[in-house]
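In this section we walk through a basic example: taking a raw amino acid sequence and producing a predicted 3D structure, encoded as discrete structure tokens. The instruction is simple. Fold the sequence below.
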Amino acid sequence: MIAAAAGTPMRLRILCARADSEAASELAAKGFGKVMMGSNQGFSFFKGPYDLTDDDRRDLYAETEEMLDQGGLDDIRAGRRKPYSPFLESLELLRKDRDRKGPQTKISCGVGRNDQGIDVDGGVYPCHRYVGMSAYKIGDIWSGVDRASVAAYYERVFAVYKHCSGCWATRWCGGGCPQYLSDPTGKVYGPDAPMCDSVRRALERNLGLAEMTDKSPQPPARGPSTPVENDGQAVPGT
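The resulting token sequence is shown next.
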């Protein structure tokens, strides 16, 4: 009803306990121009009762494979865009980062730069996910963004990302969502092995899809994959 009343295609972004491709497709059929759905991941150092489990990850991967079998691969080959399709955009980003110049490691979003969050009291945070985490406040709407606070934030994040330098997936992954690694007290932790494994698995699938659709990006020559061990301790220097 909301999509129809708007008169123009609306984007819908959903974060739920467990992403459901069938539910996303049903929402897309109701008139939304684009549907994006994600699952609660928790944090790298803590998982709650409603966060994604290892079994959930396996089920989601199987659902994605089923989508490919049921016409997803044909859509990719034909370049058909649908309101809900996790493939075409992923492949475009993969190819873009393959050809990107400069450092191979990057922050994979605009956190702290062009993607900031503001709380009800006017406080400014690196992104909407950080709102309410006072240890990451980087300014306010009256004084503006404090550059020193932003620099200190990036130092903490990049102290973690340097541990990802031996992983072939870093060029695309970027080290993961910074907020996913951030403790409310201000400590930044390393990514956990299940998340790293799921990222690499998805990238391997997308590299295969690219090759099957006459595009063959190859991972850059890097050292062996070495997930960061996360024993609940903050990375030194954070």
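Looking at the output, two observations stand out. Residues 46 and 102 are 34 Å apart (CA to CA). Residues 1-75 form one domain. In the next section we compare this with other chains.
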